[in-house]
Structures are given as C-alpha cells and as structure tokens.
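not sure who needs this but someone in the group chat was asking about PDZ domain-containing protein from Sphingorhabdus wooponensis so here u go. i didnt clean anything up, its just raw.
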Amino acid sequence: MAESAKVQLRALTLLPVGNILIALTAILLVIQVARLFWIIVTPVGPLDGWRAPSVNLVSPSARLALFSSFDPLYRTEASTGASQNVTSLSLVLFGVRANESSGGGSAIIAGEDGIQNSFAVGEEVAPGVILDAVAFDHVILSRGGVKESLYLDQSVPAETINPSGASPQAASTGPTAGGLNAQTLQKSIGFAPRNEGGRVTGLVLKAQDDGTMLRLAGFQAGDVVVAVNGRPVSSATDVIAQFRPGARISVEVERGGSKVPIALNLEQ
C-alpha cells in the first residue's frame, strides 16, 4: 500500500504544471454550468415569492384622535399650556430676546423699585424667582417650583399712522395729548363691583368718557380688575388709592376668560 501511494505521488509530480491548471479550470467550469442549470430550472421567482404587505387601515375614530393630538401650526401650544398662570408679582416686562435654537434668551424686567435690569435665562429676577424661559411676548418665571407667566407691558398703545394727506396736528389733539395721569384716570374710568357668592371678586371697568383713556391705559370695556400690585381688590377704593402721580401700578384683569397683566406708569 505504501509503495503504491509513493508511485502515485511520483506520477503527479511528474505531470506538467499546465495540465494541472487545465484540469482545475475544467472542474470549475463544470461546477458553474451545473449551478446555472439549477438556477434556470428552479421554479422560484426572482424575489423568492415576495408579496406586498396589506394596507393597515386606521379606523375613523383613531384617525380623529391622532390628528387632534398634533397641530402642525402651533406645535409648542401643549408645552406652554401648563405655564399660563399669570404671576401676581409686582414685576413689569419691557423687552425680550429669545433664542429658539438654544432655548435661552434674556429679558428686561423692572421690579417694585421701577429699575429696569436685564436677566438671562436661569438668573434670579427677585428673591426666590428664577427666569425659566423666554417667549416672543412673555417670559416664564419659576417661583418655588411653580411656573408663572409675565407678559410684555401693554400700558403704552401702538402708534397710530395717519393716512397720507391728513393733518398731523389733528391726531395730537384730544384727551390723549396729556398722557396718563392720576387725575385723568379717576375721571375717565368707572368701576362696578362683581359679586359672586355674596362677596366682591372684582371690579368691572366702564368708560366715563368716549373710552379713549380706557384704551390708552391698555384696558378694554368690560375688563374685570381682580388684583392691583399683586393684592386682590374688594372695592373701587383699592384701585383709586393707587392712582398717584408718578406711581407704577401692576393691574391684573380678567378678559375673555383669561387673566391679562397691565402695567400703568403715571405721570408726575
């Protein structure tokens, strides 16, 4: 047996290298032809019997719930809904600078002393009060873990643009020329108590003139004053007593079911 193996090994070593390569090439060619033949005769599609998945139809009630939970135009409404509690602090917001990309920003806020300062998000506005976030028309304050909103000062009305050709002197005449002062407000604004459960819960504003001073102060007819300088009101005296020359007054009114802060800066 050993002798025959040695003879076969000696015979292989004596074969030319070219014959060995030709034999290997022939073997590989036979294998590839067999594979090609098997691919042709196999009754299977190119994608191995693939079938498109069936369409999953959502019920009308599920579609309504899905679309009602997302508003593409007001995507931040849900996140800001929990911060609509208007602050009762004697603070006035004069300006904001929001950075939506980073979530930061700063705001110009005046305290009870009337001095305006710039605060960045995360800084302390008053003792125990942190500037939490800045929006385009208000800021969010964190007081003891409770989020409160402070809106821009609305006591200064927007400038009225006269039509072309109108006389500029005509726009400056009338009761608005004198600005806001304590005596004019006392004569131009009336208060009617709102009773709920046998007690006064606010004062309904009404104009004593043509309503110009009411609008100039930032109010609207029918507004209900519920607090002045952070304190609830129970009579017209609580409001009128604050109308002093040079006073800075923070008024909170109910308008259309929501609370709106208004800051009054009276002339000396």
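also The radius of gyration is 41 Å. if thats useful
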